[in-house]
């Protein structure tokens, strides 16, 4: 999965998809996650980074992560077929 | 380098809630780095806002509606030409295009250049011929049915699922969810625009548009896709944003290549959630949001003028995506003398 080329992410959390014309605001956690995905990190790396930085457990991270991935996929911010296929 | 002086006549100064493209066309021309344009505004009504906008036109003339007869209209244009020496005329209304296309040669003989679609190009993209058009040029279009009378409304149930779009031949579109609503819309549309009334399959999706310019040889000189962000109750864009959408550009280039489209155009498309594009309409002229294309890097009116004058224009292949326009309304205070002059003299 990757962030589609047409998506621009600002440091303040404004995400713009120039292919669809949609724009979104993401909170600081969402921004951090989006940027890590854009940088090409895999699921395990992102999970480890989050578990190290924040007070949360594996299960909660996974649940919230896949929910977020499904959401950004729905808005065509990412290009991949199945949100559960995140590598 | 000194700029070449050129006189341009422009119609469509009605910058109302259903705006004509005249004012944004003039604003675009004024941004030209090569030409120094003298602008002649041509108006049908004395309250077209472009008349009263300071610094917009150098001279304004009132002209008769094409419905009064093509000859009256062209006679008046030639009369104005004798005084102003018009180099290029840019008509901006659908309803007047026919008269100007028909008299293209006569205008040229007088020295007035235009750059309009051919009669065939203009007629084959008529709304009531859209299915044939889609098939001929390989573009998906919504299924449609032309209604010549109210009696045919019962046929809708056999061919479509509600809701359906009820459209006028030239203008107006309503969504109808049942037979009753179709009847109401049919009456509204047919009394204004005549017959047939077009019933179109309702395609669910996002409305997106492309402004483009064809050189008449099959080349796309300019093309910028846009999504309406704010739509008025008349379906007009009050805000929009340029898109980076290769598929929309491909559809546009393919259409221009096949039809050898000459002049400005606007493609109205619906993009479905599956990413399919349905052509719902082609406007055979520059649309009112043309200034967005200029802001994004493609000065379409300037390129059209060059083509009209027989100059070579290289295709503009890049533009900035994510450029937005936001329209606004503005009150101009006008002295009665100005209104009186245009109303009494037909020029100002």
Q: Helical proportion of chain B?
A: 25-40%
Helix-residue proportion of chain A: 40-55%
Helix-and-strand structural type of chain B: alpha+beta
Q: Order of strands across the widest beta sheet of chain B?
A: 13-12-9-10-11-14
Task: Name the beta content range of chain B.
Answer: 25-35%
Briefly, what CATH class of the largest domain in chain B?
Alpha Beta
Spatially, the strands of the biggest sheet of chain A line up as 2-3-4
Number of domains of chain A: 1
* Spatial gap, N to C terminus of chain B: 32 Å
The average pLDDT score of chain A comes to 90
Task: Provide an overview of this structure.
The complex is a heterodimer of chains A (87) and B (348). Chain A has helices at residues 28-38, 43-53, 58-74, and strands at residues 2-3, 7-9, 14-17, 23-25, 78-79. Chain A has 87 residues and is an alpha+beta fold. Chain A has one domain (2-85). In chain A, the strands form 2 sheets. A 3-stranded antiparallel beta sheet of chain A has the order 2-3-4, covered by helices on one side. Chain A is globular, with a radius of gyration of 12 Å. With 348 residues, chain B is of the alpha+beta class. Chain B has 3 domains: 4-114 and 331-345, Rossmann fold, CATH 3.40.50; 153-197, no CATH class; 204-326, 2-Layer Sandwich (D-amino Acid Aminotransferase, Chain A, domain 1). Chain B is built from 12 helices and 14 strands. A 6-stranded antiparallel beta sheet of chain B has the order 13-12-9-10-11-14. Chain B has a 4-stranded parallel beta sheet with strand order 3-2-1-4, covered by helices on one side. In chain B, a hairpin with a 4-residue loop joins strand 9 and strand 10 (220-231). The longest helix of chain B is centred in the first third of the chain and has 15 residues, at 70-84. Chain B starts with a strand and ends with a helix. The relative contact order of chain B is 0.14. The chains are: A alpha+beta (87), B alpha+beta (348). Chain A binds chain B through residues 6, 8, 16, 18-21, and chain B through 206, 208, 226-227, 229, 241-245, 321-322.
